[in-house]
Amino acid sequence: MQFSPVHGRHRDSLRQAGERLRAHYARHRRSAAFWDAYQQIQNELAEAFPEHRAELCNRMAAFAQRLGAVEEAQLVDAAVRPG
Hints:
mainly alpha; 64% helix
């Protein structure tokens, strides 16, 4: 998976989200508690940066894959916008 660089507030927020997600994964592995935390963190990012929602969701999915939470991350098509 190849992503464009993230800058500024996006980068800091994504780094913090990754740290939080890593901590939840270490504590809960693939349990419902991990996925609840994943969804909450993803929703926080999407709310803070709605114009970058698809990219941030894809980065979260890729991070979950690197942690081992999923075998293959399912990515969102950034060109598709909710109607």
